[in-house]
Amino acid sequence: MALEYFDVAVLLVVLSLASWLVVKKRSRQSILWLSVFTLIYFGFYRNGCICSIGAIQNVTLSFASPAYTISLTALLFFVLPLGFTLFFGRTFCAAACPLGAIQDVVIIKPISLPKWLNKTLGLIPYLYLSLAVLFAATGTDFIICRYDPFVGIFRMDAKFHMVVLGVSFLLMGMFVARPYCRFLCPYGVLLSWMSRFSKWHMTITPSKCIQCKLCANSCPFDAIDYPTNEKEVLKSGLGPKKFLTYALVIPLWIAAGVFVGNRSHTFLSKANPDVFLAELLISKPEIKNDKDNIDVQTFLSSGKTLETLVSEAEIIRHKFYYGSMMAGGFMGLVIGLTLLNTVVFRKRQDYEPNRSNCLSCTRCMDFCPVEK
Predict the structure, then answer these.
(1) How many Å is the maximal CA-CA distance in the chain?
(2) pTM of the full predicted structure?
(3) What are the sequence ranges of the domains in the chain?
(4) β-bridge mates for residue 195, sequence order
(5) What are phi and psi of 224, to 5 degrees?
(6) What are the mean pLDDT values of the chain's consecutive 10-residue runs (372 residues total)?
């Protein structure tokens, strides 16, 4: 327990240092060394646990189940990065997250992905977040922790397929920078929301931008917005009519998401061990005689009746019924807003970091030729 509180203190120090190095010091080299420390301490020494990303599930379950009490350290690991992001941008991603750090050190020759592909893949973290919250709220599983691609590397002990998954992410990350952070991390969704409103977000240039484009070429995450040309925007057909059309369609996207969630709740609920076991015992009563089925034999030895198990499974499935519709509606809203964002015109005079997607890695600062 004392070590967990020490972890919180270390996280607080790293977040403070990272925010200062990004916003004030503007030092890429310092951020790099700080991320190496994070990788060694939170990654290999602490085995990737406690994890701010996985804490999403602890927080969710604490709201959904009165019987579950979240520890103060897990709550702080969840809240502190969000608080710092609200003030300084995604400095947690820059140097305080071991999952980001291990990917950052393997970037060799990053390629730029097409905008449409970036936006499409960018929907996956929202889906992952929805499922993680749904599974945690129903007491089914902590899927973020179960399918963490790097925890097996940190602990030097994992199932073969998880080792392959982690190594695959690192190999991919040599050319597609930080694939987990950008296209899978559910905590990144929350950080993205907070970063949009950050008070002191990192800036590329310390003075007036000379539009040399070096920063945009140096960013491996495609997280720098270009200056806008109003004439080109008008030619592209963006305008109030298109905006209103996309905005009016959002309720239809939400309704479609709710429908899909409703239709999929039975399938999703089978991920819960109690629901799965109840269906198995009902559909195949002879399975009771299978001495090699550990789950069935454990249930039989527990003294619990099949009626009790079925009753508990029905309650869980009922939770999935409403939870799946909410998750589907959320995804419909996300898709609708994503499409709406493609027709929103924002006037920019200079190259600017996209507050939502910028990971505050400070690479662009090193390439900027403008001096203070």
Answers:
(1) 77
(2) 0.93
(3) 2-219, 240-341
(4) none
(5) -115, 125
(6) 91 97 93 96 90 95 92 95 96 96 94 91 96 96 94 87 92 95 96 94 86 87 83 63 90 97 96 93 88 86 89 95 97 95 80 92 87 68
